[in-house]
Here is the input.
Amino acid sequence: MVLKFFLNVSRDEQKKRFLERLDKPQKHWKFAISDVRERGYWSDYMHAYEEAIRATASKRTPWFVVPADNKWFTRLVVAAAIVEAVEELHLSYPRVSPQKLKDLQAIRAELVRER
Here is the structure.
């Protein structure tokens, strides 16, 4: 199973996060000067992302395009998609043969008797 997520951060939210990284010394390590230069190509990037998503999405492996301005909401949407996908697998524990059950009961009894 493959799940593909595109976490879509808006231009305004990106700006806010960049300013926070500049204002808080503990976040300076996250800041790259090249990121600010790349903002000049925002519309080009958005067009490229749309093309890539369209070209690589399929019925079997669709993209989940998730608004990512609010981290709590992003995490909720991604977690829900994962839970739903795993539930669709209809997983179950392996069945244990009658002989294996008998062996397990014998081992349990032996462990209980142990001092």
